[in-house]
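Hi all, long-time lurker, first post. I run a small reading group and we've been trying to get comfortable going from sequence to structure in the token notation. Rather than ask abstract questions, I figured I'd post a concrete chain and ask someone more experienced to write out its structure so we can walk through it together at our next meeting. Sequence below, copied exactly:
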Amino acid sequence: MRAILCLLFILTVPFTNVFASSPLFKDIIPNEKDEYYLRLKNGDELSGFIIEIIDNKEDGEGIRFKTEVGKALVYDFQIAELRLKSDMYRHTNRLYFMNTAEPINNNHFIGNFELLFLYGGIGLADLASINFGSSLIPGQNNDQLTTLNIKLTVLNEPFESMDGKMVLAIGSNYAHINKGTEFLHFYGVSTFTGKRSNLSIGLFYKAGMNDLGEVKVFDRIYGFNYGNGSFGLNLGLDTKFSERNDLHFIGELWNSDISKPTNTGILIG
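-- Answer (accepted) --
Happy to help. Here is the structure in token form:
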């Protein structure tokens, strides 16, 4: 009996090493196509490609990591974070106010725009995205901006001849400013994604609520005319600086009625 147990122990040990797998490397297939972001426990950051997964008896499992300056051997116990570089930037589903065609997916968020607009978003798989928010302007009482946006991503197709993809989405947006001043829009948006930049083009249609409205800003009231049936256009650009992973240029152009070129605004930052 002891001989059998010893034999089982001898046979089991090598197979345990063979089949053991670090959670960090579980779903990784080594190649030079998928670029990864790697952060070590000492704070160093690298980006590159995983070309080999290794298992060292002394140091455990690790990866051979190909970077711009050469190849590095990095072990599991040295790694604080490892993820696809394409997953590093979690804001591809929106710009300032404009929705891109990209879904929120698992990048649920809560944010505060300019300290005056609290908003958030949730994603349902890679299909549906729901955004909601309300302004927090002091002294406005009931004259706050409240919005609800529902978006469905209907196409996500990679380019055949170059890096990147085209994404299409349709959606609806409801906005409430005060009693009697409400908006309902339907829209479609297409996003073209490259290696560093996302370009979005959207067309929206004002489908309901009153043509005439008022906006109260503290003690002043501003009236406006925004006719039902108006078609508007928006353009958005998000591009990463080539030498920084944490710095982006973001710009939006809005036109609420394409028959009136003066109804145009720009946001950049």
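A couple of things your group might point at:
The longest strand covers residues 165-178.
The longest helix spans residues 2-19.
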